[in-house]
Design goal:
The chain is 64% helix and 11% strand. It has 571 residues and is an alpha/beta fold. The strands form two sheets. A six-stranded mixed sheet has the order 6-7-8-3-9-10, sandwiched between helices. A four-stranded antiparallel sheet has the order 2-1-4-5, with helices on one face.
């Protein structure tokens, strides 16, 4: 992606700061004018004050110098404050939009990309863009204006001498181009390696229990150390390359300055220019090379921000494979139908020619060996994926015709993996909805969780620890069930929702759920027989196909596979 293309992509974020940019421009004008004034004051300082010894200059020159530096300081402050505001605000919006884009991507994208990689794009890559937008870009603009102003002043003082002073500037371009190309490649690799490092850390902290249980702290430390060492070496390569810019500029500047001193000295000896003019010229040339050196250094560092920007905009450019339909589902789900539905991942067929009809008030149980296709069927209902063949209809309309948000508002799912957020218990139950304390308590009551919730230090307003670490497994599962009840959805999905509960608690919750779901569609993925004996229909899955269907009693009589599974499940 070219620099001009990146600038074009940033334009929607950049526009809208007219006042701030006006203040930045004012700050730049004050700074650049003051810098040029520093060189210009050298002429009267040498000619009028030291050579002619005019007494009033003892007061004028120091006063002018103070005024110049007051203006320069004011300009720098104004510029710094307003550029920081612009930069930080742009980056805040960019970070929010990037997260919004990621969370709205389909599950295929989220499964394919490591969490550490995604976090790295939001944190590390955006931080590099922030450094460029709020620090480097304003400095680049200021220093460029300073170079232009001082070059103009140098030419104004002595055009022929200016040629010898400034002929070195084009010489800088060739090595700078080669260095920046290499820096961009190294920066891409560095940011990818940083994502690897972030992924490794995420895995360590997310799997701390299994690391402790297996006493593999040293093993994980060594894996992190290896990644960290590779990251260090890559960053050192970038440093070796980027730090070449400054010494190259110093050498070239020294050659130009030496030429100026030699040629300008001869002009002074020949009385073709005064000592003051030469001093002003020499000061201006010296001042030119300082911002020029900074411009070169900044330009080399821009490659880092450019590489980060490419990684960020790559995510924005991704198309979601799951697209919204035109209709909003604002009525309960009364009817579901799978018509010759197949689902394929690469060469693997997760579901094959599924025919199924479910109506409100029915409870359907899905059983079978792991990998049989049970979760795949649920993923189709939630539109994590779309069928490869066939169609899924909801209330006699294709599932694809509805918006994803309105569809998922009608579905409440409790999975084996319980998600507890670092918020109050009430907020976890009402997740994503307005908190109604009476509804929260009612949902907790139905989930057999009210007693333990009220016994917490601050009741339902107690803040949960990360991953619900201050709760038992059974308590976390009860909260997940209460969350599903609170949602008041018309389709309830229970994926081994009571696996962490004792028999008595399980019976109480099942009884409450049966009463709650009388007018709803309930789909249960079962690994224990006790959770499905009451189901209207049990579907036995194997290799993506339904090979048997019927009630618990019917399947015990007609299906050998089900009888064997029932024995394994505790029948």
């Amino acid at each position: 992606m070219k620099f001009s293309e990146i600038n074009k992509r940033f334009w929607p974020y950049v526009k809208g700061y007219k006042f701030h940019y006006a203040m930045v421009l004012l700050g730049i004008i004050l700074t650049v004018t003051s810098t040029a004034g520093t060189a210009h004051i050298m002429k009267p300082l040498m000619d009028n004050m030291f050579i002619k010894k005019e007494p009033e200059m003892l007061y004028i020159i120091p006063s002018l110098l103070i005024i110049i530096y007051l203006l320069k300081s004011a300009g720098r402050y104004i510029q710094a404050v307003f550029t920081t505001h612009i930069g930080l605000h742009i980056v805040s919006r960019l970070r929010e939009d990037l997260l919004l884009k990621m969370v709205h991507m389909d599950m295929g994208f989220l499964y394919a990309n490591r969490s550490g990689e995604l976090i790295s794009r939001i944190t590390n890559d955006i931080a590099r863009v922030q450094y460029f937008v709020s620090r480097m870009l304003p400095e680049l603009i200021q220093e460029t204006f300073t170079v232009i102003a001082l070059v103009g002043y140098v030419i104004y003082l002595n055009a022929s001498l200016a040629f010898w002073a400034l002929f070195v500037m084009p010489v800088v371009i060739l090595p700078l181009i080669k260095i920046t190309r290499r820096l961009k490649k190294l920066s891409h690799r560095s940011q990818e390696k940083n994502a690897d490092l972030m992924t490794r850390l995420t895995e360590v902290f997310n799997n701390s229990e299994i690391i402790k249980a297996n006493a593999t702290e040293e093993y994980e430390h060594q894996r992190f150390k290896d990644e960290n060492e590779r990251f260090f070496k890559l960053n050192m390569k970038s440093s070796y390359t980027s730090e070449l810019v400054s010494p190259i500029m110093e050498i070239i500047a020294a050659v130009g300055l030496a030429a100026v001193i030699f040629i300008g000295g001869r002009a002074v000896y020949a009385e073709e220019m005064s000592v003051g003019e030469f001093t002003a010229f020499l000061t201006a040339v010296g001042l030119v090379f300082q911002p020029l050196r900074r411009v070169s250094a900044i330009y080399s560092k821009i490659q880092d921000a450019q590489a980060a920007s490419e990684r960020v905009f790559h995510v924005f450019d991704m198309e979601n494979s799951i697209q919204d339909g035109p209709n909003v589902l604002n009525e309960p789900i009364k009817h579901l139908q799978f018509d010759q539905v197949s689902l394929q991942f690469g060469e693997k067929k997760a579901l094959s020619e599924i025919d199924l009809t479910i109506n409100a008030g029915q409870t359907i149980a899905l059983v079978g060996q792991s990998g049989g296709g049970k979760s795949s069927l649920i993923n189709l209902l939630l539109r994590f994926y779309d069928p490869s063949e066939g169609s899924v209809s909801l209330n006699h309309q294709n599932l694809k015709s509805y918006t994803q948000n309105s569809l998922r508002h009608q579905i409440a799912a409790v999975s084996q993996r319980v998600y507890i957020f670092q918020d109050t218990l009430a907020a976890n139950v009402a997740y994503g909805n307005e908190i109604d304390e009476n509804r929260v308590k009612d949902a907790l009551q139905k989930a057999d969780a009210l007693d333990f919730a009220l016994a917490l230090p601050e009741g339902i307003h107690t803040v949960m620890q990360e991953f619900g670490a201050n709760l038992s497994g059974g308590q976390r599962q009860r909260i997940a069930i209460a969350r599903a009840i609170y949602k008041q959805a018309s389709l309830l999905i229970l994926d081994e929702a009571t696996s962490a509960l004792d028999n008595e608690s399980e019976k109480r919750i099942q009884s409450a759920l049966e009463a709650y779901a009388q007018d709803k569609i309930t789909i249960i993925i079962a690994h224990r027989l006790s959770t499905i004996t009451h189901a209207d229909t049990i579907l036995y899955f194997e290799e993506g196909q339904i090979i048997a269907r019927g009630s618990h009693k019917e399947l015990l009589e007609t299906s050998e596979n089900y009888r064997r599974l029932a024995g394994e499940m505790g029948e």
